[in-house]
Amino acid sequence: MCIAQVWRSDAGCCALGTSPLDTMHSAMDSKLSTLIYSRRSIKLYKTLTYILLKIRTLEHERPKDITSVAFPYSLAMVDNHDFIENALRYLKFTLVSKDHPRIIAMVDHLSNALVKAMLELSPENSICSTVLSLAQNSPALHTLIAQACSSNLIWLDLFTKASWLTTIRKLCPEWTSLERNKALFYLAQSTQGLVLCYEILLLYPLNLFELLQNPEYGMSATLQLLNIPAYASMLFQNPELKTIYMAKQKELAEHFYGLEAIYSLCEEAPYELRDAVDMVDKIELVMWTPFIAIQQDKISPWLNDLNDQHDVSLNLTLTIMQAWTTSSHFGSFYLSELSYQPWKCDCPINPCCIDPIACKMHRIQQSLLFVGGITEVPRPTTFELSSLCIQKPMGRPSTAMLGEFEAQFHHLLSEIDHSTSYLDFKRIGDHFWHLITEIDASPPPSAKLTIWMGDFFYNLLVCGKSKLDIPYPTTISIPEPVSIDQESKWPKFINTWLKNYNHQLGLESLPCSSLLPVVLKTLGEEACDPLVWSILLMLSQRHDQKQVSECLLRLRHSSFALFLWPQLILSHQLFHGCPAPMYVTASIVEWILNQKCPKIMIALRRLQCPLLTMLLRWELNCFWSYMDWPNVMIYLDLVGIYGIDYIPLLLAALVKHMRPVIFQATKSKDVLDAQIPVLKWSTYQTWLSHLHNQYHDMIKERMRSL
Hints:
Layout lengths: L1 H8 L11 H19 L2 H14 L17 H4 L5 H13 L6 H19 L5 H11 L3 H13 L1 H9 L2 H8 L5 H11 L3 H13 L4 H6 L5 H7 L3 H9 L1 H16 L3 H6 L10 H13 L24 H17 L1 H8 L19 H14 L13 H4 L12 H20 L6 H17 L4 H17 L27 H16 L4 H14 L6 H10 L5 H13 L8 H5 L9 H17 L1 H9 L4 H10 L8 H14 L4 H11 L1 H6 L3 H6 L11 H19 L3
Helix pairs in contact: 2-6, 3-5, 3-6, 3-7, 6-7, 6-8, 7-8, 8-9, 8-11, 12-31, 16-18, 16-19, 19-20, 19-21, 23-24, 23-25, 24-34, 25-28, 25-34, 26-27, 27-29, 31-32, 31-33, 31-35, 31-38, 35-38
């Protein structure tokens, strides 16, 4: 009624120019928005939507008599559809013109307020349909939908089923870059949103350097988009990024309190240095993302001669190098090839945490030589987080118990031989969980456990009966392996890691070293992946080169390999060079944790740490240096038993296990760099079973959506 009265009062002022009524119209906008928000009635919202859609095509007519311009008050009190039609008839006589600027502005404002109000209600299919009917081709309204989808995954699920993404793909070419960027930016904030729109983001790339400098968008948004390898490459190759970093570094180095400022929080730094500290922190955090270090040919410009640097510059450069070595094995490989190695330290075990430079040098040197979980190669970390990792030593099993463990593994192998299909693997899974419980209580030596787990994994893969052999519904075909350059130093680098890890675990390194050339020749660039090295480590003690090659090739030809083997995707640029299968896995983890562990997700948002970034760092490294070796083997064996549908559940359990670290962390980097605390998989068996029963259908549908 208010809207109609305003339009009627406008009847005497039909000119398209300025009018005294302009002020009245703009003043009424906020009042109308307040009216819409206060009612919170879906019936009212649908009625108003119907009227606003009709107004866009309503043609003005001259009033026939005095009753034509009388508002239908009597019908407004009756709950029927006649009121809506009579209201439209009333508007037809009082409306000046549907093309009048003030009419268009008011309809747009009301549509905006109405969409906002409806998206604040509980998600429903009917509301979703109503919102889409109102949005049509309006970029502003589609941006509101994207915002709602980023904060509520149920909305995203409903709009996806309503073919909203198809509409977005059609409209993107018609929108301006600013309009398109806003909608895509908000859509990509959730992992599921990134799964749905990464192809559009590659067609219409956002300027990450501008996002990095704009405090309005937040650091979490930039980190999320850097999970797309092409975006990481674009930002890393941007010369302005290096220029601004060096300028801020110089500003800090020349200030008396510069060194103190980089050790403290941005809010605690001197006021004149806060901008420099903030930008340096942002750029350093960018370096902790998983795909930055893959750009090996672009790393050199970031490395100056550290021997001649000021303490501030040395500290900042070492921080970046440390980020590369822990984010990806590619970063470790490149730094190991440098002619000068300024990170040499004389610390016998762990450096003094009070000396940050020595601590960082030790970390870099450690990462280039050794891998291992928190009890194998503990990383020097902050005092607050290190206390979370202290565990009481567990007793070692007796000789009799070791014999019992080996007998149980032989029994599992016998059950695999006698199984007829993956349906029989439920019994094998139950037996394996029972064995894990006993292993968690009295862990056997890593050397013996590696041999037993390797035998079990080999039989799972080659038996042809596990869930990994179920055909996957996809048209993606994996090309033939690309051979490694003969002059490449990858074999030497991988062999160093494997030798040192064998030595840590008490295994003979010769079998592994002798099999490595065969694996590299068979798989080429695909073999530069910690998953392959893990399988090689598990099988090398009891299996010859033919068996190892057979096992790896069976896994490679399995369509499920795309969810386990990152380098298989990256080396062949499948899915436009994006690890889309891992995006899908992470989106399921995100959905589960939002419902089961909301406090963890809130804490990650507080830290501006995308869940996807953390999961990709784990998966790209096959958990090397994040989780103890026995738990890595258990993870691989559980996937072999239950299939890839179990991967999201296992990852959700690991994130839940990281809860103490996440809650006590003060920076995103603290979470990304943290090792997984001492883990007993058996403690999560019941929870995993519950998740499997509740989310099985959803997981199965999403994992087969590629």
